[in-house]
Amino acid sequence: MAIAALMLSVVAACAGAAPSPARGPAAISSPTPFVPPRYVPPSYVPPSYVPPSYVPPSYVPPSYVPPIVRPPDPFNPPPSNVPPGYVPPSYVPPSFVPVISRPPDTFNSPPPGAQSGPPQAGGTSGPPPGGSCAAVSAVASAPVLNGTSDLFDQHLHEYFAGGPNNAPLDVSAQVTMATGVAQTLVFVVRGQGTYDDCLVRQGLQRYPGRILPFAVPRVITADEIDQLRLAIEAADSPYRGVGELAFYRSDFDGVSLSSGPAAAAFDALFRSLEQRGLPVFIHLRNGQDADFAAMMRAHPALKVGMHGYPSPDATAVATLLRTYPNVSYSLDTAMLNITGLADLRPGISDQQRQTGVDAAWAFWKGLMTAFPDRVMWGTDAGPDYDTDMYRPNVEFVRAFIAKLPTELQRGYAYANAARFWGIPR
Prior knowledge:
Elements: H1 2-16, E1 152-160, H2 170-178, E2 183-189, H3 194-206, E3 211-216, H4 222-233, E4 242-246, H5 263-276, E5 280-283, H6 289-298, E6 304-306, H7 314-323, E7 327-330, H8 350-370, E8 375-376, H9 387-403, H10 406-420
Parallel strand pairs: 1-2, 2-3, 4-5, 5-6, 6-7, 7-8
Helix pairs in contact: 4-5, 7-8, 8-9, 9-10
């Protein structure tokens, strides 16, 4: 009995105790699926994968035009009241021609028939955007110029026919019209050959009678000059002359009008201009007198507009005009810069302007009096001149014209340029 009671007590004690921990596979109550070591879920994209439509942040489309970096202007020193080396944010020196480069597109191929870069000399098939390329007279519906309030700016640089946004001649036309300038002679760099010629014709359609375009070669080589001559000779040419040939620029170093690799091309170009009664606009470099004399001997009937040389020497300019009856002189606003004010950044006072006007008249009085029919006005402004930059030039020259004797005012304001460049009266 005692043994039976003892066994019953042991069984009872075991029944009330906590169970022992389980061991082995039977202990996993919610088993997870097996994951192989190199399993990749369906949504995974490896780092090197580039989808077909992906455009990386650094991509630049072919139409991109980078900002223009403006070098200092070595020809027009700033006024004395600004720090040395000052270049206003929007100012482009007259000699500056920006080089537009577009990085290649390594990710997206252009669609069939699309143009992946700027058109090359010789043009493209079909007109660029903006209208037809129908021939338009550069002097059609010309505004009436009949008072000293009218101005003819016969020295304005467009550089590229399309301007900064591929809008033909809009910058030149809109800025001058906004400031009351009736007509403008614009120098257009034929950077893209016949493509630019078409853009110029489109610009003339939008601004009839406002603009006289002159053609400028992109680079100074015999082939480029020949291409320019063919553009002038074309039946639908929009150009009324050639220039500015700026021999003071570095890309003209070593180039001669009468000798060297480009001489024959220059000779053919000038002969063509003579035959058509069209002028050329030239800015010689120092020491080029003999070269220019040889050119004029070979082309005695060629009409030449001269600017910037020899200057600022009124006596030397008078000698030039006396020697060559077919030469007229562009006395630009920048050339009136006797007191350092005629580069005319915005904000000069009326007193400063009048001081500059008085000094300019005292300096150029002898030349203008001796050659009343052969001195013309222009600005030598560039395509980056907005209205605020351009307007002080106009205000200055209006004050200067008011200072002139009555018999000189009309000629300098517009009549001399209109007659010389062949604008119907």
